[in-house]
Automatic annotation (TrEMBL):
Xref: InterPro entries: Kinase-like_dom_sf, Plant_Ser_Thr_Prot_Kinase, Prot_kinase_dom, Ser/Thr_kinase_AS
Molecular functions per Gene Ontology: ATP binding; protein kinase activity
Pfam families, alphabetized: Pkinase (PF00069)
PROSITE patterns: PROTEIN_KINASE_DOM, PROTEIN_KINASE_ST
The protein's name: Protein kinase domain-containing protein
Organism from which the protein derives: Malus baccata (Siberian crab apple)
Residues annotated as domain Protein kinase: 1-212
Length: 235
């Protein structure tokens, strides 16, 4: 299998570190968008394979950042082949991480590439807001998940920027931020058939942040923005 991964010899950090406020310099807007594009590119590639591979457990702690802040997907232990032919989903036992898992998957065990799209929307929302998908401060409240908290803001164009990470100090394109938030809202639509395909998510992200093209050339990533794994993932 192929996917974004971090070599053991490289110095890596989890993308979840962007949500830490403990003396850590906040990651810039450009870097956050590049991370989102790297992840979208990796998922889009997996979904394009003949096996229609579903990553299944996308979350910030499974995204590794190298010294250049290039993002790599790690831990393919829960990945599985997706539906084939006219099938829209595969049925499987529910695993994954609360706050990231698509609601239809949690409720029914129905897994599809659109399940990954939902999880990507959550990760994108984390990048925009600097908040965690699940937060102890929200536990037990109506707005328990980050998605529940953010939806009312993203759904209102006058309030959408209220979700943005204040540590960015306003150093980002307001137009791009609104477009990224709208994309996140589409990704975590409750009905999977209304979520975009990952290839379309990637195209939208590249329009939102076109400077990524220059970084791709500098870092000499391959056409898919992925690296070959040197070992087989656990199945």
């Amino acid at each position: 299998m192929m996917g974004n991964c971090c070599r053991k010899s490289a110095k890596c950090a989890h993308a979840s570190s962007i949500n830490s406020s403990e003396g850590v310099q906040p990651i810039t807007w450009a870097v956050r968008m590049n991370i989102a594009i790297d992840v979208a590119r990796g998922l889009s590639f997996l979904h394009s394979l003949d096996a229609n591979v579903i990553y299944r457990d996308l979350k910030a702690s499974n995204i590794l950042l190298d010294s250049d802040f290039s993002a790599r997907l790690s831990d393919f232990g829960l990945a599985r082949d997706g539906p084939t032919g006219d099938n829209t989903h595969v049925s499987t036992r529910v695993v994954g991480t609360r706050g990231y898992a698509a609601p239809e998957y949690v409720a029914t065990g129905h897994l599809s590439p659109k399940s990954d799209v939902y999880s990507f929307g959550v990760v994108l929302l984390e990048l925009l807001s600097g908040r965690r998908a699940m937060d102890d401060e929200r536990a037990g409240s109506v707005e328990e998940t980050l998605v529940d908290w953010a939806k009312p803001f993203i759904s209102d164009s006058r309030r959408v920027l209220r979700i943005m990470d204040t540590r960015l100090g306003g150093q980002y394109s307001k137009k791009a931020a609104q477009a990224a938030a709208e994309l996140a809202l589409q990704c975590f639509h409750t009905d999977p058939k209304y979520r975009p395909l990952m290839i379309d998510v990637l195209a939208t992200m590249e329009r939102i942040h076109p400077k990524y093209t220059l970084r791709t050339q500098q870092h000499k990533l391959d056409d898919h923005g992925v690296k070959h794994l040197n070992h087989h993932p656990h199945t």
